[in-house]
Amino acid sequence: MITTTNPPLLIHPLAFPSSNSGMSLDDAQIVNDSPQVGFVDLGSKRVSHGSRQGDVDSERFSISMSHREIDDGDARLVYVNDALKTNERFEFAGNSIRTAKYSVLTFLPRNLFEQFHRVAYIYFLIIAILNQLPQLAVFGRGASILPLSFVLLVTAVKDAYEDWRRHRSDRIENNRMSSVLVNDRFQQKKCKDIQVGEIIKFSADDIIPCDTVLLSTSDPTGVAYIQTINLDGESNLKTRYAKQETLSKVAEKDRIDGLIKCEKPNRNIYGFMATMEIDGKHLSLGPSNIVLRGCVLKNTNWAVGVAVYCGRETKAMLNSSGAPSKRSRLETRMNREIILLSVFLVGLCMAVSVCAGVWLKQHEDDLEILQFYRKKDYSEPVVENYNYSGVGMEIVFTFLMSVIVFQIMIPISLYISMELVRVGQAYFMIRDDKMYDETSKSRFQCRALNINEDLGQIKYVFSDKTGTLTENKMEFKYASIFGVDYSGEKTNFEGEQRGYYIQVNGQVWRPKMAVEVDKELLQLSKTGNNTKAGKQIYDFFLALAACNTIVPIVVDTSSPAEKLVDYQGESPDEQALVYAAAAYGFMLMERTSGHIVIDIQGERQRFNVLGMHEFDSDRKRMSVILGFADGSVKVIVKGADNSMFNIIDKSVNLDIIKATEDHLLSYSSIGLRTLVVGMRELGVPEFEQWQSSYETASTAVMGRVGLLRKVAINLETNLEIVGASAIEDRLQKGVPEAIESLRKANIKVWVLTGDKQETAISIAYSSKLLTSNMSQVVINSNSKISSKKSLEDALVSSGNFLVSDDQDAGGSDCNTSPPVALIIDGSSLVYILDTELEEQLFQLASNCAVVLCCRVAPLQKAGIVALIKKRTDAMTLAIGDGANDVSMIQMADVGIGISGQEGRQAVMASDFAMGQFRFLVPLLLVHGHWNYQRMGYMILYNFYRNAVFVLVLFWYVLFTGFTLTTAITEWSSVLYSILYTSVPTIVIAVLDKDLSRRSLMTYPQLYGAGHRQESYNSTLFWLTIADTLWQSIVVFYVPLFAYWKSDIDGPSLGDLWTLAVVFLVNIHLAMDVIRWTWLSHASIWGSIIATCICVIIIDVIPVLPGYWAIFELSSKGSFWICLLGIQIAALVPRFVIKMVIQHCKPSDIQIAREADKFGNSLELTGQEIEMNTSRR
Amino acid sequence: MNNQVTNGASKSKRISKKPQYSRFTQQELPAWKPILTPGWVIASFLAIAFLFIPIGLVSLFASERVVEIVYRYDQDCVPEMYRGNVTAYIQNSLTNKTCVENITVPKKMDPPIFVYYQLDNFYQNHRRYVKSRSDKQLRSAAYEYSTKECEPKERVNTTPVTWVPIVPCGLIAWSLFNDTYNLIMEDKVLDINKKGIAWKSDKNVKFGSNVYPKNFQYGAPIGGGKLNESIPLSEQEDLMVWMRTAALPTFRKLYGKINTSLEAHDTITVVLQNNYNTYSFGGQKKLVLSTTTWIGGKNDFLGIAYLTVGGICLFMALNFILLYVFKPRPLGDPSYLSWNRKTVS
């Protein structure tokens, strides 16, 4: 179906934006389809409370995973309270943890072994070994091993320091005390001595030492509250349950005997599957029965559990591995050029060895007489050839020796420099106060350290909606109650009256969060039950306060007379509704498994919770059966609009239903999430019938979930409509501006969401992703044929809009044709992805400025990313916050996790993590641009730096009879890349800024430099190589001609070459520095000074042949003239070309820099446009 | 509160506090941001030109002032009868190697006049050759036996003691240049001062005053000059000069200095001993008399190079002036931006 209209088009009158009672229906239910079963249980709401519900709960898990029944062979058998027997047959890990890698003894071998995993070090090693062969000894032993040992030492020291810190924290961790049941008494035991099978007791605020299955808690219903902030970063309290069957047992008195059969240790922190055999009964255990290492027990006096996973097998430890490693685009390209450089290297070596062979052949007869060759060794009794084994072998030896001499042609130091630079860049990204999130108090995190520069070349951004574009902090906005819309003026109690509160035992209790309330509604809600409107409002808010799974927790404040009620729950929607009810005087005070207490306008009322049908993604609603004080029983249902309208009795109150539908439509069009509430009074026979079937279903052994669902569906019929609520999932701060910036930067933003189409479109409008001048192409198909047809039609019609190609679509102010927005849903994608239709989708999508994918499953998200990745060279970035974004984050070139409300799986899978979507703008436009520009320059410079030195050595070899003599001392050769020239390139690559942050943020178009690969491409590479060749020729031949036929000695000329080349590469770098901070000055001029000092030091060692050479050399004028002339002559061509390009074909960056310096704006004024046009 | 928990996820969370502002962490250190405006470009080219052209002229002038007499004698000094078999002539110690030739002074030469010998095609920088020396042994008698690096000229089988180290060992010392020159002008011997031809540092530090030549040039084959075994190495300046191995295959080495001035058209008679074998590798031997200036010997290269670079820079300055005049581009002109160009076109 294709529609082409300007304002948002709602396809079906009943198709309201999604709403749900689950924490994120859209996300959760989609996850259900994915193989990541473990996350389902997090996403969907657990409504159970108390032991019975706990049973239902765990049953649900086990059934949902029944296809993965634990196989005996894979199972781990834990005998409760019998550590000996448990550990008898299986070697389970003890609880001592060891994050440290090395011990004193193993450090050296193991660290070396790990370091030599890198190709670079192997190269170093092979060269060093080659050099040890007497035939090939080019460098002295010390000089040949120095570079390798230097790098190894630096890395080893770093590793040792890190490991020492790990040792220290391990020790603290292992020596914490915990209370363990030994001989029927709880005794203090060191944490590291806990074994699988032992029973452990925790007190409030204890950190759980290992993964334990709960047996009993201080709560009579077996609830324990835990905080998992250390595990997944979520700060709200989670409930865990002890099994009813074990609840009553007192560990000290009743000897608990049982067998737990559970999965092998795995890293899924949201899944646990086990069965417990106790007193002959089989119980199933799920994730709600286990508390994991690292969690903290809260609001529970004590809890007793049995250890099932210890030490390194705990889920926390299994999860503490590092981020996935990706390789940056720039590095991949660089490796191609490194292969080219190796070809050059082999070429140079071949040239030298062949020439050497020819020379030897020509002089073969004279070798014995030549004073400088002396083939035979007369120092031995038998006169033999000395170091000469025939022309053929000499060629081979010369080849290998030249590899040793020219080894730094392959810039191994570059890999190390790159790592250092990335660490430096990461430091600045983490420290950037513009990327610090005040609300979640989180800094930017660099989890992957090797793709910093990719941030400067992103072309596609794939974004999740909920929690990424929006805050996922729900706020109650409007209510429609019995057909009356209350969306009037709001007050927020900033003044004297601070929201609703109640008095309890002389203390003031107030909700933790104040909600803006509608004045009229507030007034009406106070009139009580008497008027008709009052009665309706009463029903509505009672439903909101009762029909949920929120647990109120009373928190102390600074003043003893005041307490805050904190509503804990896993669904932000429900929290918002309960806070709203509280603000209108319906304050939920207490919830246990059997009843709830609600303070209604100051009057405390108790309701019996007779039953609860939790939310599931098929019904898309939940219901609670409430027994009132007067003996009446009501079922209250809350759910998504389309699921609710099907079960609402349409025979009465048709006008109310109609009005409600209208209200829902208007709410959804401004991007609000809506929920519909219905209610029905149950007659006694109906209630009894329900009760019996409910009991049967909830005690059923097999298929409990299905039975319960059937019971619920039977019950939830013929409801009377009560009203609808509208919750705002607010856009995060700065999202529209961020999207506008990204669009200007010619980055395509695609939104991939599990939400419904209408919600997605309305959010897209409010985030300025869609604008009214865009034509929309909508594809909703249910079969392959219709998808195909839709795609073809869309291609044709989108082709009509497009005059220019897609490159221009990003230019926001291009007025040639309206940009096209593609809106496609998950069910169509099912028929498109992984089929031949992909190609068409890709073409269509690349024609579109905006792509919105709704109702997509996590794997489809990854599929869409792959669609782009496979077909273009463009860099992709995925950003999301939830478990359902993990696959997309891992698939994209760069994955970014938002550390938000939905847990931390996204962050854990990501390469970078940050608090807000809008930080994407400074991250990409500023840091990404800088990183890319710096890294690109550094790579080219390093190629140049090493090649120019190698070439200088090579030219000299041509004048030594091709015998690989180096005039430059071996120590200078070695120090060249370690000391003489290494620091400035790193400092500049970390600190230099081609443009100011302000320019980059003001003109996002400047980001195009990365798209066009302006900092690193083959043209630049070949230019660099040509420049290198010229510079090496100047460095070498100027002294050669100046000192030809003179009495200069080798070491002196070598010193001149050393100084000339080091000065040259440093001045070359200085020419390209854009911002001179004191650090740049210090590093560049410091390197030059350090080189001079080193050369002098080398020349005052009397046993080296070059003793005093530098002093003799520098006492003559020709030395200084040479040195100066070399610098200028070598750099003039580069300078000329740079200036010509800068003047005739200035890059955007160049112009922006000039504008920045001289303070003019980069906006075209009308006059300039005219001038510009007329000039053409 | 639970700082001790070791858990990858928790650590990052713990340190979450606002980064402290500093100009360094925000990458806002005060910086000098030079931009090469047309003015600067032209100025720098002109500056280079005005620096280089005078230096080039001065160097060229200095080089021109040097008076140099180069006389190649390796061909002329072989008697006619041996021209066919030069190697036999030079290797035979019994042939008369004395050779007399006349050279004319082209211009007035002021003292000090340096006497050099020049060898062509002699690879004193050959890898085998440069490594074949023992600096330790040269420095101190205590290290007489550290001759390991001197292969293939390390030790020698003498009678009565077998296999004793050679001092100084190694190919370099062994191949010591041994042609000698005597200059006679108007029947008077021109004094060639052979003191002070080596570096002071060599005399004082590098060559030991307690090291005496031993077993040097003992037995065939003999590579070159012999050394007086009663003079310590620190006095053997010819050896020192020779052992400062030349950087390039064509090189000069200082033979001595003449401290009298030579007038133009003076004729000097050279009486030389043509002992050194360069014939095996086709090398040339030349005698060089040269004065020096601050730039060294006669070499026009640097002067010409400077003039060329200076000239090119002057030329570039003119070109850039023309470029900026005829094709000006206002700095920071937004109409050159890629995205503006696209819209306008």
Question: Can you describe what's shown?
Answer:
The complex is a heterodimer of chains A (1176) and B (345). In chain A, 46% of the residues lie in helices and 18% in strands. Residues 1-69, 493-497, 802-815 and 1166-1176 of chain A have low confidence and may be disordered. With 1176 residues, chain A is of the alpha+beta class. The longest helix of chain A has 38 residues, at 920-957. Chain B has 345 residues and is α+β, with helices and mostly antiparallel strands. Chain B folds into two domains: 37-66 and 294-325; 67-291, no CATH class. In chain B, 30% of the residues lie in helices and 15% in strands. Chain B has helices spanning 8-14, 38-65, 86-91, 127-131, 135-139, 171-174, 200-206, 237-243, 301-326, 338-344, and strands at residues 68-72, 98-104, 113-119, 155-156, 164-165, 180-185, 188-190, 251-258, 267-273, 285-290. In chain B, the strands form three sheets. A four-stranded antiparallel sheet of chain B has the order 1-10-3-8. Chain B has a four-stranded antiparallel sheet with strand order 2-9-6-7, with no helix packed on it. The longest helix of chain B has 28 residues, at 38-65. The model of chain B is unreliable at 1-16 (pLDDT under 50). Chains A and B meet through helix 7, helix 8, strand 14, helix 13 and helix 34 of A and helix 1, helix 2, helix 4, helix 5 and strand 4 of B.
